[in-house]
Amino acid sequence: MKQPIPSDKHYETALDEILHKQLDKAMFARAIQDAPGKEEETKALYIRYRSKQLAEIEQREQEMAKRELEEQAERESRARLGREEEFYRRYPVMKRVSKEIREDCYKRHLAGEDISPHVFLFDRKDKAISFVLIGILVLLGAIVVFLN
Fold it and tell me: Is 141 within 8 Å of 147 (Cβ atoms)?
């Protein structure tokens, strides 16, 4: 973790704590220990130590917020993948249609629209083509038998 650099607001906060006598006791004790009997130097050390501590606290909070956003994005990504897997499991024929139709049907599915009629048409179209091909093959077979 990179050492944070205190900003003006951190120094102002530390000075306000001194002026309003609302000191961080541990930090003030450290400043007294490092400058015993020297009130002005103790205050200066308190401001230096406290502003650095405030900058570190702010940096940790920012890192935690960033981590939380990344985790949220990961959870949403996993949820989206789960919804897509469920969609293809429910409507396997969608794997065989064009990308545009697939995306349109998926959006409609997510919006709660019943896409069963669309899927039925695609499924029937594929089966109809299969039946036509089988019919042609049977007819060709019959012609071959007839010609022999």
Answer: no
